[in-house]
Design a protein that fits this description.
The complex is a heterodimer. Chain A is mainly β. Chain A has no helices and eleven strands. Chain A is globular, with a radius of gyration of 14 Å. Chain A starts with a strand and ends with a strand. In chain B, strands 2, 4, 5, 9, 10 and 11 form a six-stranded mixed β-sheet that branches. Chain B has a five-stranded antiparallel β-sheet with strand order 1-3-8-7-6, with no helix packed on it. The chains are: A mainly beta, B mainly beta.
Chain lengths: ~120, ~110
């Protein structure tokens, strides 16, 4: 069964450094998402991406965040200057075109980001 | 925006008993309600979902009910097994795709053998 993959599984960085989290969505999916989950808290939406542009973003997704689909398979989240409060589990998700009945978002295993 | 509340936060049941997790939502426009199971160290995995034009959906030991009037939906797991132990999240969204999921706070389910 196809699945969303994410690398790395754990990223440790110093405050102020840039990090790039990588995701490979399911191959026939057209919508891509990033969520984060701070330890012990609910999963929070960051951004959705469709047709090479951001379709929706939350207030969390400020100017230090950016997303990109650099090629036909990868979807990345960049945090330009990490802060302590960016420490969280980051989940990538993907879903198929809205024209089909199934709208499920499939989640990857997550990248745990630790900012020191 | 949408606000999803989930109860209880922790739930312990004896193996073979049933477990029920309840969620409420605030935005009457929400029309898609998935349930995810998250095991330790893994991402959320979809276990069942329901759309607003359906009142109940069942898949083997798992069922979900939706009350649009009251804006709440529930997950029912019957004949629980130790491998059902995990954190369960409800979510609400507005179809079609491209829209964010609003998650509940999660329920940690422990099934005692």
């Amino acid at each position: 069964e196809p699945e969303v993959t994410q690398t790395p599984s754990h990223q440790v960085t110093q405050m102020g450094q840039e990090v790039i989290l990588r995701c490979v969505p399911i191959s026939n999916h057209l919508y891509f998402y990033w969520y984060r989950q701070i330890l012990g808290q609910k999963v929070e939406f960051l951004v959705s991406f469709y047709n090479n542009e951001i379709s929706e973003k939350s207030e969390i997704f400020d100017d230090q965040f950016s997303v990109e689909r650099p090629d036909g398979s990868n979807f990345t989240l960049k945090i330009r200057s990490t802060k302590l409060e960016d420490s969280a589990m980051y989940f990538c998700a993907s879903s198929r075109d809205s024209s089909v009945s199934t709208d499920t978002q499939y989640f990857g295993p997550g990248t745990r980001l630790t900012v020191l | 925006g949408e606000n999803v509340e989930q109860h209880p936060s922790t739930l312990s049941v004896q193996e073979g008993d049933s477990a029920v997790i309840k969620c409420t939502y605030s935005d009457s426009a929400s029309n898609y309600f998935p349930w995810y199971k998250q095991e330790l160290g893994k991402g959320p995995q979809l276990i069942i979902d329901i759309r607003s034009n359906v009142g109940e959906k069942k898949d083997q030991r798992i069922a979900v009910t939706l009350n649009k009037t009251a804006k709440h939906f529930s997950l029912h797991i019957t004949e629980t097994q130790p491998e059902d132990s995990a954190v369960y999240f409800c979510a609400a969204s507005i179809f079609p795709s491209g829209n964010q999921f609003y998650f509940g706070t999660g329920t940690s389910l422990t099934v005692i053998p």
